[in-house]
Amino acid sequence: MKNKEAISHPSHYGGDTPHECIKCLSAWGLESDALLWNCVKYISRAGKKGPVLEDLRKAEWYLQRRIASLEK
């Protein structure tokens, strides 16, 4: 069984710090915008769990979808 820190504050998420990704995203009011939430999440954690380029491409995918939704 995983310890509580690995589940609620994993190190690749920033740990339990004032700048943990989920805390910043909430402070910025992005709960209602899943596309921007995911974009920023992937940028903030780029390279901490997997390849940097893969994370940045995922962020780009979410950002492109958000841009497309605004252009409609």
Question: Mind explaining what this structure looks like?
Answer:
The protein is built from four helices and no strands. With 72 residues, it is mainly alpha-helical. Helix 3 (34-44) packs antiparallel against helix 4 (52-71). The N and C termini lie far apart (46 Å).
Q: What is the percentage of strand-forming residues? A: under 5%
Number of helices: 4
Class based on secondary structure composition and strand pairing: mainly alpha
How far apart are the termini?
Answer: 46 Å
Spans of at least 5 consecutive residues whose pLDDT stays below 50 are none
Largest sheet: none
Number of strands: 0
Global shape: flat
* Mean pLDDT across residues: 84
Cα Rg = 13 Å
Order of H and E elements? HHHH
Helix percent band: 55-70%
Write a concise keyword list for the protein shown above.
mainly alpha; 0% strand; 72 residues
Helix-strand blueprint:
Layout: H1 4-8, H2 21-27, H3 34-44, H4 52-71
Helix pairs in contact: 3-4
Explain briefly what this protein structure is.
The protein is mostly helical and 72 residues long. Helix content is 60%, strand content 0%. It is flat and about 45 Å long.
